[in-house]
Specification:
- The structure is a single chain.
- This protein has 9 helices and 6 strands; from the N terminus they run H-E-H-H-E-E-H-H-E-H-H-E-E-H-H.
- By secondary structure, the chain is of the alpha+beta class.
- Helix 5 crosses helix 7.
């Protein structure tokens, strides 16, 4: 197979999967080295962007997904039925920020930081698929550990959690703007 054929197969895999597809899954299917697949996908990303195609390949950690371009949102929303899309409450946003920066974290630890109960906020965030259970803490009662999802990374337009702004930078920016 030449690179053109491999890229075509990768595009088909990403299209049919619909969700972020792990590069290791692509590796298993194509029986190629991970670095070669990554190189081809990087080329595809450049080609899609250069040709201003209606879809793009986005990277989420070691996963890739076909996605529409954000600049086409106004047109796409005309096609899609309106959905109930309530914004997150301040409590849910605070809880989400705590989970994003402190993950994996238990509900009790989140409540310790916020100073209030957060069951409802966690449930809302789980319904919106922004957070998920990532395991259990090995101590009495085995409390659930929460972490963010791939959808969280995608929703906020990040490639990985490493792209979250540092807490120190956030505090510095807010402190400087209030002076």
């Amino acid at each position: 197979m030449d690179n053109r054929e491999i890229k075509s197969i990768i595009e088909s895999l990403l299209f049919i999967w619909g969700e972020p597809l792990d590069i290791n899954d692509i590796k298993e299917i194509l029986k190629l080295q991970k670095r070669d697949i990554k190189k081809l996908i990087d080329e595809m990303i450049d080609e899609f962007n250069y040709n201003r195609r209606g879809v793009q390949i986005i990277q989420i950690e070691d996963k890739y997904q076909l996605a529409t371009r954000s600049e086409h949102y106004e047109f796409i929303k005309k096609l899609c039925a309106p959905k109930s899309n309530k914004n997150l409450s301040n409590a849910a946003l605070e809880t989400l920020a705590i989970i994003a920066y402190k993950q994996p974290i238990t509900r009790v630890d989140i409540e310790g930081i916020r100073g209030v109960k957060c069951d409802k906020s966690i449930n809302t965030l789980m319904e919106k698929e922004l957070v998920k259970e990532v395991g259990r803490l090995e101590k009495t009662g085995k409390p659930i550990l929460y972490g963010t999802t791939d959808f969280f990374i995608k929703y906020f337009g990040l490639k990985s959690l490493d792209e979250l702004p540092s807490i120190e930078k956030f505090i510095e920016d807010n402190f400087n703007t209030k002076e």
